[in-house]
Structures are given as C-alpha cells and as structure tokens.
C-alpha cells in the first residue's frame, strides 16, 4: 500500500488547481519548500511523476489527471467529516470564503458584515468582491454570488434577489447638452460601458436593451469605477439602484422609460453545502436581503 498521507493529497490538489507553487503554498498556509516536499513525497509513494513543469506553470501529467477525481473524492469525505465534528460543537467556527460581484459585495454585503461578526465571533469570513466568476469545484470560494443560475456542476443554487437598474449621469454632464426626453435622444450622448473581453457574464451587456446602436466611448472593467466616472461627469451609464442611491451627485435619466432587471443567485458546492458555517452564512444572506426588501427596486 502506498505510504502517503492526506496532507500530501491536499498539496497535490492545491497545485493542480492553481498551477503555481507559491500560490498553492499560500492557500495551504505553508512555505513553498514544504509544498514541494509533499508533492515529491506523494510522487515517490505512487512511483510516478504527477506534474510537468511548463512556462505557464505546473500541469498534471496523465497520471496526475487520473489521480485528481480520487483526490477530490477524498477531499469531499474529509470536508464532511470535519463538518460533522464542527457541527457537534457549541460555537460556530471556521472559515467561509464568499465570492461576490464587486457591486453587491461592496455596497450591500460589506456594510452588513459587522452584524455577522458580532453574532459569530469565532467565524472567519473572507469576502472576495471582484468582477469575475468563481469556481467552487476548485475551492476558489465556499459560497458564490452569481448573476445567473449555474447550468451544471455539483452545486446548490437559489435565487437571492431580483434587482432593478437604471440610467444615470451627473448634473454637470447633462448641463448644456441635448435634453433627453426619449430613448432616441440617447444616441447623441457619450456612454460608459464594460471592456468587452473582460465582461465576465453576458448579463452585464446592458446597452442593447437600452437602445439599439449605443456604443460606449469609455469602457471600464468594473461597475464601481464606472459609477465614479459617471459621478465625475464622464457620460451616461447603467447602474443598479441600490448602488446609485449611495453615490451623491448622480441623477436618474428616463426613469419612466428605461428599467432593467437582473438577479443575484446564491450558490454552494455539494461537498460544503451542509457545513454549519456555510449554512449560517447562506441564512444570513437570505435574512439581510429579505430585510432590505424594496431597496433593490426603489429608484
């Protein structure tokens, strides 16, 4: 029977998912020499190389690819066992990483984290608020807020909330420019939109729904920077109402004619869905969204 331990398999999984020695070591909380030693120990125990080193990073060999599903199955079992032991304790503890779009994470969830921290002082929460999708299978997050329901994967998903968006600009931009009374007037104005190749979900492609033929002259990769550009007088753009109302100096345009709707979904992985700490964060999100009520809809 091969002489290897679970820590060696954890090292293997981290390396397979990140492809980078230093990144994988940081995830596991060890130095890169320790991680390298664990990988070498696993390869020696199995009698086969598990990674090829390439310019882009470490890539699993065919043998490494074959080991991956078995290692993930062992990881899932370890998570369930540790979760049951943690659930038996009186105090909720452990770490939960939440991956979120930057607008929701910064303007809705961030201000409410004090409540969660006060209720569960032993819980460690990591909020990653970035304009990107998160892979739960690669353990990039324990819980993800997405803008679409996942079509596949071993995940649980439920709709968190629908929210409305509208057109916004600053008074200084609108002053002295052609008045906007109908959608057709929008084509003569300067627009702010997303950098196309960095648009991480097609749900962000708002402008075709606003008016055909709109082309942004300013392209910005995330909604917070877009909002600041709008507040600075750079042009017109689309913002969620729950964000725009928190930014002084923005006015809504064509409020009675343009109203877009999107959704946030809460997604957890099958392996961690039943962990008490993950369930508690999901419950907290549901509770906070329900308490906010019409804040996501009101202009």
TrEMBL record:
PANTHER family assigned to the protein according to its UniProt record, in alphabetical order: HTH-TYPE TRANSCRIPTIONAL REGULATOR, TRANSCRIPTIONAL REGULATORY PROTEIN
Stored SUPFAM superfamilies: Periplasmic binding protein-like II (SSF53850), Winged helix' DNA-binding domain (SSF46785)
Family statement: Belongs to the LysR transcriptional regulatory family.
Name of the protein in its database record: LysR family transcriptional regulator
Residue ranges of domain HTH lysR-type in the record: 4-61
Keyword Transcription regulation included in the entry's annotation: yes
Keyword Transcription regulation (UniProt): yes
InterPro entries: LysR-type_TF_proteobact-type, LysR_HTH_N, LysR_subst-bd, WH-like_DNA-bd_sf, WH_DNA-bd_sf
One Pfam family, short name: HTH_1
Keywords, ordered alphabetically: DNA-binding, Transcription, Transcription regulation
């Amino acid at each position: 029977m091969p002489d290897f331990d679970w820590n060696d398999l954890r090292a293997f999984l981290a390396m397979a998912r990140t492809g980078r020695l230093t990144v994988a070591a940081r995830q596991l909380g060890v130095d890169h020499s320790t991680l390298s030693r664990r990988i070498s120990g696993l390869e020696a125990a199995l009698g086969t190389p598990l990674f090829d080193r390439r310019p882009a990073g470490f890539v699993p060999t065919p043998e490494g690819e074959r080991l991956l599903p078995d290692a993930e199955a062992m990881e899932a079992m370890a998570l369930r066992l540790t979760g049951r032991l943690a659930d038996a304790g009186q105090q909720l503890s452990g770490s939960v990483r939440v991956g979120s779009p930057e607008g929701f994470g910064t303007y809705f969830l961030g201000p409410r984290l004090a409540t969660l921290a006060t209720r569960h002082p032993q819980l460690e929460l990591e909020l990653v608020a970035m304009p990107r999708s998160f892979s739960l299978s690669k353990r990039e997050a324990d819980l993800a807020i997405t803008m679409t329901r996942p079509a596949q994967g071993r995940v649980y998903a439920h709709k968190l909330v629908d929210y409305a968006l509208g057109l916004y600009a600053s008074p200084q931009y609108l002053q002295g420019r052609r008045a906007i009374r109908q959608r057709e007037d929008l084509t003569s104005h300067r627009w702010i939109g997303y950098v196309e190749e960095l648009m991480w979900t097609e749900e962000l492609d708002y402008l075709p729904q606003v008016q055909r033929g709109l082309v942004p002259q300013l392209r910005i990769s995330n909604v917070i920077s877009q909002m600041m550009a709008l507040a600075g007088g750079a042009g017109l753009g689309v913002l969620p109402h729950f964000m725009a109302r928190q930014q002084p100096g923005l006015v809504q345009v064509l409020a009675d004619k343009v109203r877009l709707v999107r959704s946030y979904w809460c997604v957890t992985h099958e392996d961690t869905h039943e962990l008490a700490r993950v369930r508690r964060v999901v419950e907290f999100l549901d509770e906070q969204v329900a308490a906010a009520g019409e804040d996501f809809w009101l202009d």
